[in-house]
């Protein structure tokens, strides 16, 4: 039956359908373009498929929807291997069927998103499950033995289906002109044992003993060059991706945005081949690249002439060299490199964080960074004199010296004085250079500090800046507060006033923001120092720790009163006081 006959039948059915009062069946009168738009706006392909079941006309249109989003349903917590496999098979069959219908219709898929969840279904019987227990439990119940639900055979079968599906969907997208591809396919891996290394999550699936089973691979060999692909996100749950010389002939002529996540690059030359794959030769239009949780066995050199934004998050590679002349934004977080070499003369924004003890032995810059206006990095306050992990701030100091135009700096302050060390080395004074060009400073205090000992590090840091206009100090929910909230907040400090013993100049400061306060003496001392030095101050925004305010309301309210009186005595006036927040501005 052709589409015209179907339209006539649907219209006739609409006329025969009784209506309530004078209501008109508006759905049947919708044009096909509108119906396609409705189906395309469905949050999930399952919803769109249900809507298409209204009639054959809707079903015909379902095969022409340009945007498809597939998301699996959670599996019950008590599921065994057979149920996990059945759920995966059903999801794969549904996706494959929908893609086959679209291919037969001749209508292109512009956007394809496939996400297979590994979460358990939350049932009412699990209501006594605490949030902490949920955080500690692995997201995927792929375990063996008494505590682990799935056997080796279950794991192997799930891996076969998962790898085959992922490989097939990538091939389909490349062959059928998909413009946007998102594939989030967590492959079955062994759950990380408590106390194991972070890298355990990305170990090869090799059976009980390493090398016992040959790992299955996702590979790009034999795939056509996806001429129209503009954005792609591949998240493969720690699977091994094989890149061969044959795959290097592939060209992503239209690709502008690429994200590679949770992937282990196979073979010794994998890093080199991946760099070739994302280079300007293969991706001439690539502007944004994100590499997250990738594992390389060796060094990587990235040459990308037009790349403007790069995120490198939790990536382990021996040596990383970036040759990116057009790069404007760079974020490196939780990375581990022995050598980091950077050539990015147009860089404007940079965030740099390394794992504890994994700072590069060599940090190399090809010239200065004259356009750098915003920098986000981690600076250590102290270390024990006998603590031989090198000078944590060396790389940061070198970077700061290269940024002559830097005006905005955000610092995560770490490295508290540890009680097991009787003597400490100051890593800021006489090491971090003065930064008179910086006018905006944000300090995020690490939760590694104690509530009464963060002041020494912050005070030392503030001595490096003499021209601040804006200052933000954010205090965390300190670990010790978990006990203090039950016993009452200890507000008195038994240490010297760090603020007055340091040469802090805030003469140009106009606005200050303080968050996470609990009302300790040292917080109040800091406020006094600010007011004594910052004669141009126009605005003060204070926010006390919300949980402290909720559980120790009377104490916090009293400290808010104290802070407010101090500010009013300096000629300021209250503009807003709501719950745990207080804002004061300069009076007329």
Characterization of this structure:
This protein is α/β, with parallel strands linked by helices and 588 residues long. The chain is 27% helix and 24% strand. The protein has a domain at 368-588. The strands form four sheets. It has an 18-stranded mixed sheet that branches. Strand 25 (572-578) and strand 26 form a beta hairpin. Helix 5 (81-105) runs parallel beside helix 7 (152-175). The longest helix has 25 residues, at 81-105. The N and C termini lie far apart (80 Å). 33% of the residues are buried. Residues 11-22, 120-148 and 190-212 have low confidence and may be disordered.
Can you describe this structure in just a few lines?
The protein is built from 14 helices and 26 strands.
Topology:
Layout: H1 3-16, H2 32-40, H3 45-52, H4 56-62, E1 67-71, E2 75-76, H5 81-105, E3 111-115, E4 120-121, H6 131-136, H7 152-175, E5 180-184, E6 217-219, E7 231-242, E8 257-265, H8 270-277, E9 288-295, E10 300-303, E11 309-313, E12 319-323, E13 329-335, E14 339-343, E15 349-354, E16 362-365, E17 374-380, E18 382-384, H9 394-402, E19 408-414, E20 424-426, E21 440-445, H10 455-462, E22 470-474, H11 481-487, E23 511-517, H12 521-533, E24 539-544, H13 546-551, H14 553-569, E25 572-578, E26 581-586
Parallel strand pairs: 1-3, 2-4, 3-5, 5-7, 6-7, 7-8, 8-9, 9-11, 10-12, 11-13, 12-14, 13-15, 14-16, 15-17, 17-19, 19-21, 21-22, 22-23, 23-24
Antiparallel strand pairs: 18-20, 24-26, 25-26
Helix pairs in contact: 3-4, 5-7
InterPro entries: F-box-like_dom_sf (IPR036047), FBL15-like (IPR055312)
Organism: Urochloa decumbens
Protein name: F-box domain-containing protein
């Amino acid at each position: 039956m052709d589409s015209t006959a179907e339209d006539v039948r649907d219209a006739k059915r609409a006329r025969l359908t009784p209506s309530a009062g004078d209501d008109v069946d508006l759905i049947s009168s919708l044009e096909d373009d509108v119906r396609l738009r409705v189906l395309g706006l469905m949050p999930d392909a399952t919803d769109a498929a249900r809507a298409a079941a209204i009639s054959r006309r809707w079903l015909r249109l379902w095969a022409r929807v340009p945007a498809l989003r597939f998301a699996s349903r959670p599996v019950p917590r008590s599921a065994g291997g057979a149920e996990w496999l059945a759920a995966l098979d059903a999801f794969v069959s549904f996706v494959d069927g929908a893609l086959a219908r679209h291919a037969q219709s001749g209508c292109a898929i512009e956007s394809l998103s496939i996400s297979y969840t590994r979460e358990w279904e939350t049932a009412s019987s699990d209501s006594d499950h605490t949030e902490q227990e949920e955080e500690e439990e692995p997201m995927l119940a792929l375990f063996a033995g008494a505590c682990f639900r799935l056997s080796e055979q279950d794991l192997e079968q799930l891996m076969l289906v998962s790898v085959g599906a992922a490989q097939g969907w990538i091939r389909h997208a490349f062959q059928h002109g998909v413009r946007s591809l998102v594939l989030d396919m967590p492959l079955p891996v062994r759950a990380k044992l408590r106390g194991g290394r972070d890298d355990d999550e990305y170990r090869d699936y090799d059976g009980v003993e390493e090398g016992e089973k040959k790992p299955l691979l996702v590979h790009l060999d034999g795939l056509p060059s996806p001429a129209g692909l503009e954005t792609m996100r591949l998240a493969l749950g720690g699977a091994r991706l094989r890149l061969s010389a044959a795959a290097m002939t592939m060209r992503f002529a239209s690709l502008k945005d690429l994200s590679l996540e949770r992937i282990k690059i196979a073979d010794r030359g994998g890093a080199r081949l991946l760099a070739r794959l994302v280079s300007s030769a293969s991706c001439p239009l690539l502007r944004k690249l994100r590499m997250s949780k990738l594992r390389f066995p060796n060094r990587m050199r990235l040459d990308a002439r037009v790349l403007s934004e790069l995120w490198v998050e939790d990536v382990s590679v021996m040596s990383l060299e970036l040759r990116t002349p057009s790069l404007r934004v760079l974020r490196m977080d939780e990375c581990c490199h022995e050598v980091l070499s950077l050539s990015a003369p147009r860089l404007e924004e940079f965030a740099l964080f390394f794992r504890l003890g994994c700072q590069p032995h060599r940090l190399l810059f090809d010239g200065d960074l004259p356009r750098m206006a915003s920098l986000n990095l981690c600076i250590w306050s102290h270390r024990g004199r006998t603590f031989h992990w090198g000078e944590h701030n060396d790389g940061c100091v070198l970077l700061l010296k290269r940024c002559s135009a830097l005006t905005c700096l955000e610092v995560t302050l770490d490295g508290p004085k540890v009680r097991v060390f009787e003597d400490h080395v100051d890593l800021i004074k006489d090491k971090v250079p003065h930064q008179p060009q910086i006018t905006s400073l944000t300090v995020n205090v690490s939760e590694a500090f104690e509530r009464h000992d963060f002041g020494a590090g912050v005070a030392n840091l503030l001595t490096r800046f003499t021209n601040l206009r804006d200052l933000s100090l954010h205090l965390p929910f300190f670990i010790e507060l978990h006990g203090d909230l039950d016993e009452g907040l200890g507000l008195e400090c038994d240490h010297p006033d760090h603020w007055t013993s340091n040469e802090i100049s805030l003469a140009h400061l106009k606005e200050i923001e303080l968050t996470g306060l609990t009302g300790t003496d040292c917080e109040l001392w800091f406020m006094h120092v600010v007011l004594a030095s910052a004669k141009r101050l126009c605005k003060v925004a204070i926010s006390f720790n919300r949980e402290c305010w909720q559980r120790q309301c009377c104490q916090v309210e009293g400290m808010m009163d104290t802070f407010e009186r101090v500010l009013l005595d300096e000629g300021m006036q209250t503009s807003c006081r709501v719950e745990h927040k207080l804002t004061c501005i300069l009076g007329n």
